[in-house]
Write a structure and sequence with these properties.
This protein has 647 residues and is α/β, with parallel strands linked by helices. The chain has 21 helices and 18 strands. Among the domains are: 200 residues, P-loop containing nucleotide triphosphate hydrolases (Rossmann fold, 3-Layer(aba) Sandwich); 94 residues. It is globular, with a radius of gyration of 32 Å.
Length: 647
């Protein structure tokens, strides 16, 4: 056991947030804490980090364990550059490196003092060994790899942190935390501000991380990839599910059905007993009254089951556009856009038909939102044109929710937009988006970001629009709200074009994926998993083409000497492709490792030479060897970076 929470309770004034929270994690375990917004997930993290004290209960962390915590709202403040901030995490290695340089200078100075020189040489050799063991020659390339993985480019490494946006600062804080390599990682919404490529990199990093990880995240695809345990906080209590997020969703529903069945059976039996008791008492005879009293006593001792927590049903209201568009909704031809000599995209062509649910994906900065603004006629493209189909009405989802009147309540907001709509249908629509009971009378200025998002979507789907442009519609939504949105879009009979980094959402909703890059615009007829599958096939084809181009003779010989078996030819070709890719990768790694060993030996030989009297007494030879060693170390660092990328 590396981390244990025992009977954790926490209340703020009269509002209980956590009540008897219990779980424990072993070394190397990866878990997620899930629950509705406001359930107490971040509060629990703050209790674990001792930022908050529990009202009762205790957190037990194994002695000597290093804890790392990324808060949801990072407040990183520094006068350093990004790289300088990262180098702070490697200060022991930097100190060792500086000490090695100092030893080299001292050995050159003590050429006439054999005893001191011998002592320096021993200290130098011991320190150099520690430096190598702790990746001293590769730490700079490792830092660059982490920064690039989280979406930074080389040109940004020397940028001052004070000049960064909030999202960039959060990514810097995450990179810094990962580089410290804590025994326990607490990550509160780590995929916020990450594009899909950075999310995939982080998934790979955390999957191979040897420490214990606890994650709070609304990114369901991310959780499916990383965690093997779900800790749910619901109605102040904790429930444990040993599996990934999809396992949790499935088994939570099963457990609820079982609990509901037992609860209803017990309620039926209680009702039956109460009727028997009333019947016995109605006769007024002492003997029967005593029997009624006996039954009442037994009933009072019954361990009554609580009603299962209410689960918000998926939307069953079918929303339809007021005006049906033609079959051809939009055709875009040769669109391009640049800002201040910064090229975003060039020669974009696409078409969308009625009823399609199309996801637009791409790295941050490729121009996805810019493309949406061009489609919505808020911005002009540099080239190209857009043709809209017959009766197409565009509706745009504004992340800032500027169309909402903060003084209205929810009923008033819908009524103002649709004066002919009765209160009943308004309440039904709001209920479909998770606003029930007195929630519909809340002033809009009191709503959370996620609630405002749901209200904006409800208004949008009731509008005359039949072509919805949604820019990151799942931002700030909790998991239940995302499910509501997924259901709403799936039932919507109009056309939807949306930008999203939420791969789980894309999988559930998209019928097609469009990928925007600076040099290409690619269409994939399927959801996100289909897109990933096709991208992997494309990468394999490219690797095979490189293999065939560089080693054509060997491939041809193999085809002659190793004829296709009688089985399926496609399987055989696929197997040959995999073997070729594997051989190529193994050869690359082998060559890199060979050169790394050569350079390490050269550096060791130079260190030994620098300790020889005939060398350190000759300033010119010593300087030449030192320069040669510096060059070898620079090459070695680059090879380490390349080697790590291939593993």
């Amino acid at each position: 056991m590396i981390l244990s929470c025992k009977n954790i309770c926490k209340a703020f004034e009269t509002h209980t947030v956590l009540d008897l929270i219990n779980f424990q994690l072993e070394k190397g375990e990866k878990a997620a804490i899930v629950g509705l917004n406001g359930a107490g997930k971040s509060t629990l993290f703050k209790i674990i980090t001792k930022e908050l004290e529990p009202d009762s209960g205790q957190v037990i962390i194994e002695s000597g364990i290093k804890l790392g915590y990324l808060s949801q709202h990072s407040t990183l403040s520094s006068h350093h550059t990004i790289m300088e901030e990262m180098l702070k995490t490697c200060q022991p290695l930097i100190d060792m490196e500086n000490k090695l340089r100092t030893y080299e200078e001292q050995m050159a100075e003590k050429q006439n003092d054999p005893d001191t020189l011998e002592s320096l040489m021993k200290a130098y050799a011991a320190l150099q060994h520690d430096f190598e063991v702790n990746n001293g020659y590769g730490y700079k390339s490792y830092i660059r790899g982490v920064l690039k993985g989280l979406g930074f480019v080389e040109e940004e490494f020397d940028q001052g942190i004070s000049t960064l946006s909030g999202g960039q600062k959060t990514r810097v804080a995450l990179a810094q935390l990962l580089l410290t390599n804590p025994d326990i990682l607490l990550l509160d919404e780590p995929t916020n501000h990450l594009d899909i490529k950075a999310c995939e990199w982080l998934e790979g990093f955390l999957s191979n991380y040897h420490g214990t990880i606890v994650i709070i995240s609304h990114d369901r695809y991310f959780l499916d990839k990383i965690v093997s345990r779900i800790i749910e906080i619901e109605n102040t209590h904790s429930h444990i599910y040993n599996g990934h997020y999809s396992f949790y969703v499935k088994h939570k529903a099963i457990n609820r059905e079982i609990a509901l069945k037992h609860y209803l059976q017990q309620q039926k039996e209680i009702k039956r007993q109460e009727e028997v008791i009333r019947e016995l008492r109605s006769h007024g005879r002492d003997k029967l009254i005593k029997r009624a009293q006996s039954r009442e006593k037994q009933l009072s001792k019954l361990d009554k089951l609580d009603a299962p927590a209410v689960m918000h049903d998926k939307m069953n209201l079918r929303l339809e556009p007021r005006v049906v568009s033609g079959n051809e909704v939009i055709n875009a031809t040769n669109l391009s856009k640049s800002f201040d000599d910064k090229h975003l995209f060039l020669g974009v062509n696409f078409h969308i038909k009625r009823g399609e649910k199309v996801a637009l994906i791409g790295d941050n900065g490729t121009g996805k939102t810019t493309l949406f603004r061009i489609i919505n006629q808020q911005l002009e493209g540099d080239t190209g044109f857009i043709d809209y189909g017959a009766k197409v009405k565009v509706g745009y989802y504004d992340q800032e929710h500027a169309t909402l009147n903060p003084q209205n309540n929810l009923i008033e907001e819908i009524s103002d937009a649709y004066p002919t709509m009765d209160v009943g249908p308004i309440r039904n629509t709001l209920a479909a988006f998770l606003f029930t009971g007195d929630d519909v009378f809340k002033p809009i200025h009191t709503l959370s970001g996620g609630e405002k998002g749901r209200l904006t979507l409800a208004k949008l789907m009731l509008s005359n629009a039949n072509f919805l442009l949604l820019d990151e519609p799942t931002n700030h939504l909790d998991m239940v709200s995302k499910e509501i949105l997924e259901s709403a879009i799936s039932h919507y009979n109009g056309t939807v074009f949306f930008i999203s980094h939420d791969r789980y959402f894309i999988n559930k909703v998209a019928t097609r994926v469009l990928e925007l890059t600076p040099t290409a615009f690619n269409s994939f007829l399927g959801n996100y998993n289909y897109y990933v599958e096709k991208k992997l096939e494309e990468e394999k084809r490219q690797l095979l083409a490189l293999e065939e181009a560089s080693n054509n003779t060997i491939v041809n010989n193999n085809l002659v000497s190793d004829p296709s078996p009688t089985g399926n030819k496609a399987d055989w070709l696929k197997n040959k492709e995999e073997q070729a890719n594997k051989r190529k990768l193994e050869n690359q790694i082998k060559q890199l490792e060979k050169r790394i060993h050569e350079l390490e030996k050269c550096i060791t030989d130079i260190d030994e030479q620098l300790c020889l009297e005939e060398i350190y007494t000759n300033a010119e030879k010593a300087e030449n060897l030192h320069n040669e060693k510096t060059a070898y170390e620079g090459e070695l660092e680059g090879l380490y970076e390349k080697w790590e990328s291939l593993l």
